[in-house]
Amino acid sequence: MKEVLMGDHAVARGVQLARAEVIAAYPITPQTLIVEELSEICARGDLKAKFIKVESEHSAMACCMGASMAGARTFTATSSHGLLLMHEILHWSAGARLPIVMANVNRAIAPPWNLWCEQTDSLAQRDTSWLHIYCENNQEVLDTAIQAFKIAERINLPVMYVLDAFILSHTAEIVDLPDQKDVDEFLPPFTPKLRLDTNDPHAFGSITGPAEYQKLKQFRHDDMMNSIDIIKEIDAEYEKKFGRGYGVVTPYRCDDAELILVTSGTVSGTARVAIDALRDAGVAVGALKVRLFRPFPTEDIAAAIGACPKVAVIDRNLSVGAGGIFAQEIKAALYNRDLRPTVIGIVGGLGGGDFTPAAIEKIARRALERADSGDPVVWEEL
Amino acid sequence: MDQKLDHELVHSGHVACPGCGAVLAMRYVLNVLGPKTILVLPACCWSVITNRFPSCSVKIPVFHTAFETAACVASGVRAGLDMKGDRDTNVLAWAGDGGTFDIGLQALSGAAERNDDFIFVCYDNEAYMNTGIQRSSATPFGAWTTTTPKENFKHQEKKNIMGIMAAHKVPYAATASVAFPEDLMAKVARARDLRGTRFLHILCPCPTGWKYSSDMTVGLGRAAVNSRIFPLYEIMDGERFRLSYDPEEPMPAADYIKMQNRFSHLNPEEIVAVQQRTDRDWERLMHTIRSWPA
Questions:
Q1: Whether this model's pTM surpasses 0.95
Q2: DSSP track, B247-273
Q3: Superfamily (CATH) of domain B21-291
Q4: Which of A73, A218, A330, B234 has the fewest CB atoms within 10 Å, i.e. the most exposed one?
């Protein structure tokens, strides 16, 4: 069934289809439509869930942790400062190996106040052991909501999927909603491997020495790295059942490209329009959308870039003092390879600047003309 | 003792200091709640007392969590159990005074306002004892701690956490002492049989932090109650009050103070000030109890 949905509502409908059992969330612009819609859905009885209206995002994530530890499928949503407030509990929930799913609406961080799109909020959580999936459109948002629970519950690590503020959260698009029966077949009820059970009492999170501590972290890392294949497998299963798959990266017209633009989120779709125009004008440019950020799909990125001599990474985020965060990760991923392209780190669109097709064409043409990498940052004013 | 210890769920092998009041508190509370209880444990002395992996000195499920999250994790555990159809298991959030009065207060207030269904125990040893005796907002006036040295002892009064909980109109809030185990266990039973946010404030003397001999914990607990410094009472729905025990000939505050070296620097005028504050607070409490009886 097709409906016209804003991105936030696509999140809520995806969570409904996934049959989340406990939701704990706190409102923040531009995530508010998610909590409002889920409140309505729960109040109507269309989703049989406990929705705990907590007093902060920190408590939202802690509440999800308790519910997940008791064996319930749990969900929360936030944005920007809310995600930053959660930061401590992101480490806790991942360390406790709880399959919590969260939607984050990418919004800039104050000061100064700004409500618009930027990815620094979610990328600042890169070392928390959460999986990160960056969505391009509202259909992908809905489909990822369903996939995320399956991934999280399979590998016992929490998953955050991300959508751009306003560009997706408050923009209506046609979204194909799968049948509940089919979603139930794809995503059976959550059967936890670990839970708080008075018939089988265990202590979770007790003090350890260095040997056990490191070993547990190593397990976490190995499970995260091995999850790339699992994510692909689940995505392929989803595609077979529902006709839509996304992969972990999406190359576009990269064959024989002299330059590949690397993008994430909504910039990806715009980049493809720009690439078509450039190709029509005889400019050999391709695009590579990175959907999965943690675990970082190094092999897939290297394979997509192949022998292309130049890569321009578009970052709507910034690690002040280092540069764009996707660019850093791409450089690190390619450094030990035989084929090492020049990587240009382009930072723009911070606080909501709009990447139009024309702007992306300009970025591509300038990148082709450059003789150097422009390290550490090539600024783009939109 | 009338009530037997039916459920001995705290075991040897715990790593508390000798004479720890907080171990007595856990023992009495779990004796009443029994094995069908899930323990949520934020950072506090007890996150160490359970002992290190793979041992555990309490024989119920334990979830260790962040300092400020006892109440909200308990809310989540309750919601998860409810969704699984388990309405019987007790959810027990167990926090020290720091995790209740200070860093945990926001989450506790949130849960209490929602009236989420669990028991929250604050075992109050009147400072951050686990990190080495730093002052909290539960530290009483006049006390030495490592962050309130003798030369600049704590000048503020202890925060009125019971008043804060009463203002949330929680179904049940009570003070208790490890030196009055029958009273303590009766209150745990009353809390167990209600629904909603139930709050127990248990004074747990701490030989390490209060600086007294480890065989004096029960004596200190008795003195705190008998001097009216720590009155035993209950509040139902935030508006009906009941005194649990009236020490008719109260011990002078000075005698309680002299039992512990954390107050050894106080001069006679300061000790008189403690007595005056104690009398004032007792009068106010009695006035409230008479005005709003259970």
A1: yes
A2: -SSPPPHHHHHHT-GGGTT--HHHHHH
A3: Thiamin diphosphate (ThDP)-binding fold, Pyr/PP domains (3.40.50.970)
A4: A218
